[in-house]
Amino acid sequence: MTALTTPREGIPRVLSTPADFTAAASALASGQGPLAIDTERASGFRYDDRAFLVQIRRRDVGTFLLDPEGARPEFTAALAPVLNGQDWIIHAAPSDLPSLAWLGLYPGTLFDTELAGRLAGFDHVNLAAMIEMLFDVHLAKGHGAEDWSQRPLPADWLAYAALDVELLLELGDTMAEILDGQGKLDWASQEFEYIRRGHASITGPTESTWRAMKGVSSLTRPEQLAVARELWMTRESIAVADDRAVSRILPTKVLIEVARTLPRTSRDLARVKGFPARRRSAVRFWGEVIDRALGSDPRTWPKRERPPRGLPSRQAWANEYPESYERFSTARELIDDLSAEVEIPTENILRPATLRAVAWAATAGREVRSTLEVPDLLRAHEARDWQIELTAPILTETLF
């Protein structure tokens, strides 16, 4: 096995000026074929998930490492005319496409090598594992979780970043051949287009709200919600001002626990699991935030929002609608069997949420009156044509 610890053409220079971007765009425009693209971000350190390094490789011109942070408008002006509308190859595209869209970059067509691996039935679909299995090459890895916003970037980090696209073009070609040989290339193309369309309208980060915090639904009393809101707003203000990840200010899990327990003394606050109790300034600061929330007018405290009535829990479904649940379970088992037969994970054949929604609608919900409506219902839940072709016969057989 060959160990690849540095790019074959050497570590590229990091390009960070408008002149650099213009030169890179000109070189990339002269290349041939699709573009292999990757990003390095710093969401564990910075406020958002923007790209701090963009790696691009194209045949005949090699690899480029681009640092957009100091001149994002100029980066977009130079690179968008060359990259947009082209064929892109990305590994795990949903993780990279948002930050690229924030830079005004959008593919014309997409090939996601990680998803290709899933559809091809690979047991391991991380980039290093796929490269090793298909090309007998061991990639040097290990810097994905670093703080990519720091400057300068160490040489071994830059080697790691460049290696992420070093063999990505070849991987895309090989996976296309494998999928074609399995009769799955059209299925994969539909999946890739679904991902591309889903990111085509993104222009910036999604606006966050305090009610979107994980765990906030466990808070039931208005005073708990008031404290959660005040803690979130304060944390958000600090995070934006300092460009710092919210997890490094007050982790959401800790924030929710503080709101749930409503500690009224410094000692009680310091006892909350995960709270930075050793920093006296933190105990004092967040204690004042809690006091401010609880000291506000109760008439302004938020009320618990109950989600719209939808599907029952599985337990309630099984207990209250046993016949309906049995049909759902049968359909699920048959789709699991189909998964094994075609060697595609069940969740890629049909999202579990879609299966539950369709099964409920066709049985206890009585929203579907005919088997002829099943394909349209699947399509309404964003199932792709290949998924409908595979699963509609199973659903019509088991749910009616």
TrEMBL record:
<dbReference type="GO" id="GO:0003676">
    <property type="term" value="F:nucleic acid binding"/>
</dbReference>
<protein>
    <submittedName>
        <fullName>Ribonuclease D</fullName>
    </submittedName>
</protein>
<dbReference type="InterPro" id="IPR036397">
    <property type="entry name" value="RNaseH_sf"/>
</dbReference>
<dbReference type="InterPro" id="IPR012337">
    <property type="entry name" value="RNaseH-like_sf"/>
</dbReference>
<dbReference type="InterPro" id="IPR010997">
    <property type="entry name" value="HRDC-like_sf"/>
</dbReference>
<dbReference type="InterPro" id="IPR002121">
    <property type="entry name" value="HRDC_dom"/>
</dbReference>
<dbReference type="InterPro" id="IPR002562">
    <property type="entry name" value="3'-5'_exonuclease_dom"/>
</dbReference>
<dbReference type="InterPro" id="IPR051086">
    <property type="entry name" value="RNase_D-like"/>
</dbReference>
<dbReference type="GO" id="GO:0000166">
    <property type="term" value="F:nucleotide binding"/>
</dbReference>
<dbReference type="InterPro" id="IPR041605">
    <property type="entry name" value="Exo_C"/>
</dbReference>
<dbReference type="Pfam" id="PF01612">
    <property type="entry name" value="DNA_pol_A_exo1"/>
</dbReference>
<dbReference type="Pfam" id="PF00570">
    <property type="entry name" value="HRDC"/>
</dbReference>
<dbReference type="InterPro" id="IPR044876">
    <property type="entry name" value="HRDC_dom_sf"/>
</dbReference>
<dbReference type="Pfam" id="PF18305">
    <property type="entry name" value="DNA_pol_A_exoN"/>
</dbReference>
<dbReference type="GO" id="GO:0008408">
    <property type="term" value="F:3'-5' exonuclease activity"/>
</dbReference>
<dbReference type="GO" id="GO:0006139">
    <property type="term" value="P:nucleobase-containing compound metabolic process"/>
</dbReference>
<feature type="domain" description="HRDC">
    <location>
        <begin position="221"/>
        <end position="304"/>
    </location>
</feature>
